[in-house]
Amino acid sequence: MRPSGRDLSEMRPVSIETGVTKHAEGSCMIRMGDTHVLCTATIEDRVPPFIKGSGLGWVTAEYGMLPRSTTSRMRREASAGKQGGRTVEIQRLIGRSLRAGVDRVALGERQITVDCDVIQADGGTRCASITGGWVALKLAVNKLIKAGDVISDPLISPVAAVSCGIYAGQPVLDLDYPEDSEAGVDGNFIMLADGRLIEVQMSAEGATYSRDQMNQLLDLAEKGVNELVSAQLAAVS
Fold first, then answer.
1. How far is CA 109 from the centre of its chain?
2. In the CATH scheme, what is the code of domain 14-236?
3. Is position 73 annotated in a ligand binding site?
4. Cα–Cα dist 89/175, whole Å
5. Dihedral pair phi/psi, residue 106, rounded to 5°
6. Is 18 a known ligand-binding residue?
7. Which helix (H) or strand (E) holds 64?
8. How far apart are CA 202 and CA 217, in angstroms?
9. The Cα angle at residue 90 between residues 89 and 96, in degrees rounded to 5
10. N or C terminus of the chain with fewer C-beta within 10 Å?
């Protein structure tokens, strides 16, 4: 039924390659099927003005898509002079999702910026960015711990995200672009490793959905996040 031939509850192949850039404190390339995202984490001894002097750390994110990450060339947002609304929305989502898994007191008064650059897009770029972003963040924090700059690990849990939706009348896990573009219902589920929800973004794209269908999608998302967390932990071990 699915264009890819996958089972309804089957994820795309997932791989996470770490240490892919020379200068960033943490980096990885995450591949979820044909969606590939480069994630880097940068540690800075500063925080935004609104928390300066509070002793709290901060984690933020930036997101972007390369011009040929899609089937036709996208204009660089820098050439337009401003970021698009979708970009701003996604990078805010990445930032607040990652912060949900951070003890900001333990992090100390410093900022970690996670940059997510989409090399190739085939659906689920924000979910791949959050999942890979956590890996880059963890690698950067490991350097702080090794250097003795933090006393305890400020990361309280892995954070991962996966898309689910209703495609051809059936709940499916991890939508690729052909499914995403035709799905009657489309959702993104961001969770901690223990299944606690950080954020759910769901919308009726072409059909409404019932509470039973919502529960089915949540079950699929929990299965997908469990698989992603296993991949994350293997990557940073």
1. 24
2. 3.30.230.70
3. no
4. 20
5. -65, -30
6. no
7. strand 58-65
8. 10
9. 90
10. C
* CA–CA distances in Å: residue 124 to residues 28, 106, 131, 184, 213: 17, 31, 11, 16, 20
Angstrom CA distances, 194 to 46, 166, 215, stand at: 31, 25, 17
Distance between CA atoms of 36 and 41, rounded to whole angstroms?
17
Please report which helix (H) or strand (E) contains residue 14, including its range. strand 14-18
Token output for 19: 């240490």
At which residue do the structure tokens 């002793």 appear? 55
Strands 14-18 and 111-120: unpaired
DSSP 81-109: TS--HHHHHHHHHHHHHHHTTB-HHHH-S
Two structure tokens written together for 68: 């040929």
Per residue of the chain (237 residues), what is the pLDDT tens digit? 899 999 999 999 999 999 999 999 999 999 999 999 999 999 999 999 999 999 999 999 999 999 999 999 999 888 888 889 999 999 999 999 999 999 999 999 999 999 999 999 999 999 999 999 999 999 999 999 999 999 999 999 999 999 999 999 999 999 999 999 999 999 999 999 999 999 999 999 888 999 999 999 999 999 999 999 999 999 999
124 is in an annotated binding site: yes
Asked if residue 96 belongs to a known ligand binding site, the reply is: no
Q: Could you tell me if 193 and 157 are in contact, meaning their C-beta atoms sit under 8 angstroms apart? A: yes
Q: What is the rounded distance in angstroms from the CA atom of residue 3 to the CA atom of residue 176?
A: 9
